[in-house]
From TrEMBL:
This is Xylosidase/arabinosidase. Keywords: Carbohydrate metabolism, Glycosidase, Hydrolase. One of its GO terms (molecular function) is hydrolase activity, hydrolyzing O-glycosyl compounds. It holds the Pfam family Glyco_hydro_43. One of its GO terms (biological process) is carbohydrate metabolic process. The keyword rRNA processing does not apply. It comes from marine sediment metagenome. Coiled coil: none annotated. Belongs to the glycosyl hydrolase 43 family. The keyword Transcription does not apply. InterPro entries: Glyco_hydro_43, Glyco_hydro_beta-prop_sf, Glycosyl_Hydrlase_43_Enz.
Length: 339
């Protein structure tokens, strides 16, 4: 929701109608990637700040500098801020804009995956490694080779393989790439052309690199066709996430400029995925970003909105709400504020 349409919102009333409240309110947090590691919930969010950078369509005002990990003993417990887990000043290749991260756990090590702008102004994705799920994390000296754009989400499959999904348009620069190559002249497709697609790559055993050339992830409509750019209430924009439910792979994402969290279902981690609907209707704030995590047999959507900051686009707060699967595997759409 654009900031100019929020002037008349009664935020006290909105907060009363919200289906959930911010998990923490002493700092702003966004883009939550939630995981259940060793019987506890860990949330890896962006740490929103007001850095005084003017608003633009490329998201320069999202000028985040560090990451804090939030932990919860259970879904109803207090959310604990574990302090700074990684700072941009400690990442040799990254200049600024520590955007939506994710994390993974393997063989007793914890891996924080994060996008940032490098010194040439391009987003890339880095990895930092730690011994604890809350950090601190030590960054690798260089970004992942062949990585680009934003919003990494790392999925661990049941066979022990890990896959990274990534990509985001506008500020996330995905429109500048075709077949993994950058060109300044590349732009968004025109409305009648096929929409841009998210990207996936399998990770190496040490989770520090891609094992293969990244591939496009196909999201198809019910007739088996790719969405067009004009289908912007269904096509991919940013915020990829993958989870597995009842043996099926669910790829979920934000439609960006239409503000929906949607999902598509497939039979393997590479897709294709067939569009099935919306998980979350628009929240207060322009962006919508989420993750889906199973905790003790129930499934939860971690998401954010800008209710605490009274609608400031780049000052968001992480929330959580339970999601419900129907018997056919579809997900009931959540309305973030009761009518
Ligand atoms: O937090 C910065 C950017 O906003 C994220 O990378 C996008 O997904 C959007 O939420």
């Amino acid at each position: 929701m654009p900031e100019d349409s929020i002037e008349h919102i009664d935020f006290d009333d909105l907060n009363d109608r919200a289906i959930s409240q911010p998990l923490v309110n002493h700092i702003y947090t966004a883009d939550p990637s939630a995981h259940y590691f060793n019987g506890k919930i860990y949330i890896y969010p962006s740490h929103d700040i007001d850095a005084g950078v003017p608003f633009d369509d490329l998201g320069s005002h999202f000028a985040m500098e560090d990451y804090h990990v939030i932990s919860m003993d259970s879904i109803t417990s207090e959310a604990v801020d574990n302090g700074v887990a990684l700072h941009v000043q400690d990442v040799p290749w990254a200049e600024k804009q520590m955007w939506a991260p994710d994390a993974a756990h393997k063989n007793g090590k914890y891996y924080l995956f994060f996008p940032a702008r490098n010194y040439e102004g391009r987003f890339q994705i880095g990895v930092a490694v730690g011994d604890s799920p809350t950090g601190p994390f030590s960054p690798q000296p260089k970004a992942i080779e062949g990585s680009y754009s934003i919003d990494p989400a790392v999925f661990e499959d049941e066979d022990g393989s890990y896959y990274m999904y990534f990509g985001g348009i506008w500020g996330g620069q995905l429109q500048k790439y075709r077949n993994n190559s950058y060109a300044e002249t590349n732009e968004l497709p025109i409305p009648e052309e096929t929409a841009l697609l998210p990207i996936v790559a399998k990770m190496t055993d040490d989770l520090l690199q891609f094992v293969e050339t990244p591939k496009a992830v196909q999201i198809l409509d019910a007739d088996g066709n790719l969405f067009l750019e004009k289908d912007n209430d269904k096509r991919f924009f940013e915020a990829a996430w993958l989870h597995k439910y009842n043996g099926k792979y669910y790829f979920s994402y934000s439609t960006g400029d239409t503000h929906y969290i949607c999902y598509a279902i497939g039979d393997n981690p590479y897709g294709p995925f067939t569009y099935r609907g919306r998980i979350l209707n628009p929240v207060i704030g322009w962006t919508s970003h989420h993750s889906i995590c199973e905790v003790e047999g129930k499934w939860y959507l971690f998401y954010h909105d800008s209710s605490l900051s009274k609608g400031v686009t780049h000052l968001r707060s992480v929330k959580v709400a339970e999601i419900t699967y129907r018997s056919d595997g579809s997900i009931e759409t959540l309305e973030p504020y009761r009518k």
